[in-house]
Automatic annotation (TrEMBL), chains A, B:
InterPro entries: Homeodomain-like_sf, HTH-type_TetR-like_transc_reg, HTH_TetR, TetR_CgmR_C. Gene3D superfamilies: Tetracycline Repressor, domain 2. GO terms for molecular function: DNA-binding transcription factor activity; transcription cis-regulatory region binding. Residues 32-51 bind DNA. Residues 9-69 form the HTH tetR-type domain. Keywords: DNA-binding. This is Transcriptional regulator, TetR family.
DNA sequence: GCAACTAAACCGTCCGGTCGGTATATAAAT
DNA sequence: ATTTATATACCGACCGGACGGTTTAGTTGC
């Protein structure tokens, strides 16, 4: 559904791409409709034709970002071997993979805009997180799964805001440690 | 230094308090000088007398928030018994305690404003985080310390944005699990 | 007499949103 | 076949309000 019949990206997609790019370049508080329109290659009128208000645009950004995470997770599912903490491993691996693509940037920017403009825009995110917690709880035996998930949340949050102090080696070690935690648990 | 000679809060403090309150009420993107002045109980002129620009106000918010975290940590230091992962235990406990006070809100709001208005405002935060990592590394034997710290980062980030899906019992269990992780490590 | 304001008008810019108009395509009416 | 109508997708000038910041003239308390 990302492309219309002619194989060209729809205006909606171009606009969402442009908005995500812009936020990561100039910051969430400086996102303007004019800038988005220019970047997307259409007029402000055209932009507002596709999204009747700035709020509608932001909602769409959040929605797309959520859908992408869900898609990635489900695409990953068949590649992981079943076992304990499967849902936690899925959730963490998905997030960690997205940090490496540019996609994480988009998640970050969406969240930043939402936080800046209108905290209510985060409602759908709240829902997804709550659902993820349920999934993780549903097939985890101890608290290691929760800790691993939280650690990934922490790491990705740092990376979102360009606050991560970790070198590549650091990060690699951390990822492995999280995997160990999810498969072996906390020492007793 | 929070109060002036007469025991009354200085205008600067009142202004910073007002700004933090406002952000958590109306969102980072809607913070205006007029609103801050009104909430702080002085005129716009008075506000701009204390902070010559909005940017200066935001910088001061970030600075105060960093100082509060550092102070809290050092106040906690004599109360923890020495041992492995002391720095990690300090860092995590400090953050977790602040989540319970209202103080966490202030940290959150500061970060939100900074992210929204001007990513450069996060520079001092980046520095503090980097320094914290060094501290944690300096006295930890394995990766458990890093994981515990990251988990707390994740938890507090969720709580900052009111995204935490955890009940009080959940949270309690998680805190205990983090402590176990920091004292006993990952199973081998 | 200086620091720390108050009060209120004002300026310039930015920005979300409106609105009249346009181009193209497809369909309906004659 | 030609006109007329309708829908879609878009353009871009413009409006009005918000907001950061300035200025000015005065006030209060040490």
């Amino acid at each position: 559904m990302l492309e219309n019949a002619r194989g060209r990206k729809s205006s909606r997609e171009k606009i969402l791409d442009a908005a995500a790019e812009l936020v990561s370049e100039i910051g969430a508080g400086r996102l303007t409709l004019d800038a988005v329109a220019e970047r997307a290659g259409l007029s402000k009128g055209g932009l507002l034709y596709n999204f009747p208000s700035k709020e509608a645009l932001l909602q769409a950004m959040i929605r797309r970002m959520i859908d992408q995470v869900t898609e990635s997770r489900e695409a990953l599912r068949p590649q992981l071997k079943p076992g304990p903490n499967l849902e936690a491993r899925l959730a963490t691996t998905t997030l960690l993979n997205m940090c490496c693509d540019g996609k994480m940037q988009e998640i970050a920017t969406g969240l930043m805009v939402a936080t800046a403009e209108n905290p209510r825009l985060l409602d759908p995110v709240r829902e997804v997180i709550s659902e993820t917690l349920q999934r993780i709880k549903s097939d985890s035996d101890d608290d290691a799964a929760l800790l691993g998930w939280l650690a990934v949340e922490g790491l990705s949050n740092l990376e979102m805001h360009n606050l991560s102090p970790f070198s590549d080696q650091d990060r690699e070690r951390i990822v492995q440690a999280i995997n160990r935690l999810l498969t072996k648990g906390i020492a007793s």
